[in-house]
From TrEMBL:
Domain called Thioesterase: residue spans: 115-172
Predominant location category: membrane
Signal peptide (from-to): none
Enzyme class, first EC level, given as a word: hydrolase
The keyword Transcription is assigned to this record: no
InterPro entries: HotDog_dom_sf, THEM4/THEM5_acyl-CoA_thioest, Thioestr_dom
SUPFAM superfamilies: Thioesterase/thiol ester dehydrase-isomerase (SSF54637)
Transmembrane segments: 172-195
Membrane topology: Peripheral membrane protein
Localization annotation: Cell projection, Ruffle membrane; Cytoplasm; Membrane
Presence of the UniProt keyword Transmembrane helix in the record: yes
Organism (species): Amycolatopsis acididurans
Protein name: Acyl-coenzyme A thioesterase THEM4
Length: 201
């Protein structure tokens, strides 16, 4: 059975994360005007201090996500609560794997007008983790091999797909790809190792 994510998360938190994401992009693209930049920095520092005054102990923010159970909405790839996360959207998971959308921005630029390969790998790593968990084999990535076939564009929605392939004892094999407008730009194959204890969120 396919389950739609996200789960329940306070709108204030997702809105704040979205605004900070916008802020990061604005910072990266801001013209070099030293007084203006210093003034902005001072105003941002004020907001940071007001949030810091209400600091929680752990970054983990568990919400009911899907068949895997309670997961952290602050996950740095998928989590809508984390401004660092692109994040993932339109997530669909089932026993065969997961599909999702992701839109990178100029913040993620590596090669000119293309997404940094580390970010592509992060999304693929996350996707294989999601896929094997959805297939009933929650595991951590031990090995991830990424092939970059073409530059991955930012500013457009990309499709992410990952599938559980097979299990051999504690080793779980999975594959994933990321595509733009039907063209696969990167593929990954992964070996994950089953968790022996409780699955962290
Ligand atoms: C609103 C909603 C929001 C929702 C929000 C969603 C959040 C949803 C999160 C879910 C999705 C997260 C997905 C994140 C994906 C990561 O980011 S995972 C994090 C990165 N990975 C790590 O940190 C792992 C670090 N490595 C380790 O901890 C340990 O090496 C491992 C992987 C646990 C394995 O250690 P171990 O348990 O001691 O196992 P070990 O006996 O060494 O090996 C077991 C088997 O694996 C094999 N193996 C081990 N390493 C390798 C290797 N590198 N290559 C090949 N084989 C290997 C061994 O040869 C052995 O094989 P067999 O002898 O059984 O045939």
């Amino acid at each position: 059975m396919t389950t739609e994510v996200p789960g329940k998360l306070s709108p204030g938190r997702t809105t704040l994360a979205a605004r900070v994401r916008d802020l990061i992009e604005a910072v990266v693209l801001a013209e070099d005007d030293p007084p203006g930049l210093l003034d902005a920095a001072a105003r941002i520092e004020e907001v940071t201090e007001s949030l810091r005054a209400r600091r929680r102990e752990s970054p983990r923010l568990l919400v009911q996500a899907d068949t895997v159970g309670r997961l952290s909405a602050n996950n740095p790839v998928e989590g809508p609560g984390n401004p660092l996360a692109p994040p993932l959207s339109r997530i669909r998971v089932d026993v065969d794997g997961m599909r999702a959308e992701v839109t990178f921005t100029a913040v993620h630029e590596g090669p000119p007008e293309r997404v940094h390969g580390g970010w592509v790998a992060a999304v693929l790593d996350h996707a294989v983790g999601r896929a094997v968990a959805a297939a009933g084999h929650p595991a951590m990535t031990a090995s991830l091999t990424v092939d970059y076939h073409e530059g991955t564009p930012y500013g457009v929605p990309l499709e992410v797909e990952a599938r559980f392939a097979r299990r051999d004892g504690r080793k779980v094999y999975a594959i994933a790809n990321i595509s733009s407008g039907g063209t696969i730009t990167a593929t990954a194959s992964a070996i994950l190792v089953l968790f022996t204890g409780p699955v962290p969120g």
